[in-house]
Amino acid sequence: MFGFRDIEIIRAIVRHGGFRAASDSLGLAQSAISRRVRHLEDRMKIAIFERDGRGVRLTAAGRRLCDEAEVLVAQRDRILDELTQNVMAGVVRLGVAETMTHTVLPRMLTDLRARHPLLRFEISVDTSDQMGVLLAQDGLDVVIMLRDQAPRGINLTPLPPVTLGWFGSPAHFTLPDPAGIDDLAALPIVSFPKSTLPHRRVVQLLSPGRRQVAAVHGSASLATALHLVSQGFGIGTIPHDIVRSWPHAGLQEIRVTPDARLPDLDFAICYSPERNEKIGREVTRAALAAADD
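The line above is the sequence of LysR family transcriptional regulator; the predicted structure tokens follow.
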């Protein structure tokens, strides 16, 4: 309907008090300015100026157009400044595995906010397999996910491994010290969601040679898993860092035999180098710094 050049012409007419003075300031013929304004009024089907013997003044619609146009011009100038000065701004679609939301994420985002105050984050918390699909389809810009489930063709930077332990509430369960696979498998177990790699690992660890499959319950929420284990629903496979950050849950680690130990979780920062190289590198820097704290 209108362009920035139309806005500049209207602003010049208002600022200089008429078409003739505006033509001098813009270096355009008065007839060209008049024609441009008339065509704009025809396209928009409004009167922008009221003309009388003393000059011109804005109509109510013209004032509304100028007020709104000032916002557009300011946004245009801001975008140009950010692009030409290499400022990081805009929305970053960030996918995060829930384990990372309790550990790396808060420190990472605080770092990024301090360095790049114009960035905005849309945070999605999901399983690694789901986020891997979204990353490949350009539904997310940067993802912190399990390394083994990262899609091909992306840039991947490993984070320090996350250690897992068996935890329970001493008030509800008493196990041998150390507990073996048979001891653990005889109890209800709260683990990661069924579709995830950690859940499958727990099932594989407990299943070989057993007639009855262990009862492994999946929870997409670590907070829910902590509450279930704390209240005696079962024992849980939970990252050590998470339990340390929730001391009020009153969980105690179950010492187990070597064959019952859980493998570490290997997370990585992932992004497409073709689409998100700049922000991907900056999120990677902040995530590594947060993991070292």
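Note on the example: The two ends are 53 Å apart (CA to CA). The longest helix spans residues 60-84.
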